[in-house]
Amino acid sequence: MKKIIKSFDHWKAWLYLLPAIVLLLIFTGWPIINTIRIAFLEGYDPMKEVGGETFRIGFQNFEKVVTYKRFLECLKTTMILCFTTVPLSTMLALLIAVCLNSIGPLKRFLQTIFFMPYVTNSIAIGMVFAAMFNIVGNASGITTIQNAGIVNNVLQFLTGNKDFYINWINAGSTYTHNIIVMIIYIVWHALPFKILILLGGLQSVNKQYYEAAKVDGTSRFRTFWRITVPLLSPMIAYVVITGFIGGFKEYSSIVGIFGDTMGPAGNAKALNTMVGYIYDALAGQAGRASAAALILFGIILVVTLINLWVSKKKVHY
Q1: Strand partners for 57
Q2: CA angle 130, 131, 133 (to 5 degrees)
Q3: pLDDT tens-digit profile of 103-152?
Q4: Dist CA 120 CA 125 (whole Å)
Q5: Looking at residue 77, what is its pLDDT?
Q6: For residue 272, which of 17, 58, 127, 276 is within the disulfide window of CB 3.0 to 4.6 Å?
Q7: Is the separation of the CB atoms in 185 and 125 below 8 Å?
Q8: What is the CATH number of the domain that holds 192?
């Protein structure tokens, strides 16, 4: 009788999960399989496929992607953004989390303030950042400055030079200045989630470690480096891995600041990323888009495996 009841409960659990499993198979499983299939079909056209035309299997889509100049530029931009923002945001989040954990009054209030960007739409935040870095000139461009923007106003105050300004995102701005703006924005937007994870880890650390270090007269820096960081290493590894995965999929932040041109006026697609390239290729080049998506997946997989390998050696559980 007990075996029958257990068997019934087992099937009842699967019955409850069935709607979610069906939806996952339709909207996640099948698109993944179809993307892999299309990536290897040369000259693929969905309308021709509906008409019954068949396509030769090969690696032509991958060859076209990796030899296309724009793709390499997208890969470079993605790599720069990913490998600069992830370490910077992780280190800043760790320092802020440690500071928040040591604050008594207003602790909850400050946690809420730091978490607010995480629940705010990234496009809306990008528009705010664009307004901060934007320069307002006359009708002919920015040759005559009417408003240098909030960021430039701060720089003018710090330098004491009222005529000093930097063309961050407007027409004629350099790739370096564009990248700096994007790094600032992405780091700022990535901080809340990482702070939340690391702060949760800090609050679960046994206080006896810190009390023993205090009795031994250990300096704060040594306590931080020898106690806090090792005990938080699982959380740090988690935010680093998820940070790299998110970094390689960067797209909406650039759209928020530069719009769908993905670059300053007169230099469209200058800051296009891997995901942006995939979106662009979807319009009439589904095979290339699918191949680029698989290449991006492979890069993310390799970086994730490297992070996991490093974590096994450095993380203390």
Answers
A1: 41
A2: 65
A3: 777 777 877 787 777 777 778 888 888 888 988 765 445 555 667 788 88
A4: 7
A5: 93
A6: 276
A7: yes
A8: 1.10.3720.10
Q: Which domain holds residue 127?
A: 69-134+169-314
Say what the pLDDT of residue 194 is.
Answer: 92
Q: Does residue 170 contact residue 147 with C-beta atoms inside 8 Å? A: no
**What letter would DSSP give residue 121?**
-
Higher model confidence: residue 154 or residue 315?
A: 154
HEC assignment per residue over 56-94: CECCHHHHHHHCCHHHHHHHHHHHHHHHHHHHHHHHHHH
| 273 DSSP assignment | -
Q: Is residue 129 assigned to a domain?
A: yes
**Residue 48 placed within a domain:** no
Tell me the CA distances in angstroms from 275 to 64, 157, 210, 290, 295, one per residue in order.
17, 38, 45, 11, 11
Q: Note whether residue 192 is domain-resident.
A: yes
Residue listed under structure tokens 């994870």 = 197
Q: For residues 233 and 310, what is the distance between their CA atoms, to the nearest angstrom?
A: 11
Q: Helix, strand or coil for residue 146? A: strand
Residue 156 CA to residue 135 CA, distance in Å, equals 13
Specify the pLDDT at position 144. Answer: 58
CA distance 49 to 117: 44
pTM reported for the whole predicted model: 0.85
Does 38 reside within a domain? no
- If one counts the domains in the chain, the total is 1
Q: Is the pLDDT of residue 3 over 60?
A: no
**Residue 1, Cβ density class (10 Å: 0-12 exposed, 13-18 middle, ≥19 buried):** exposed
- Contacts for 261 with CB less than 8 Å, ≥ 6 apart: 268, 269
C-alpha 304/C-alpha 245 separation (Å) is: 8
Integer Cα distance of 64 and 176 in angstroms: 28
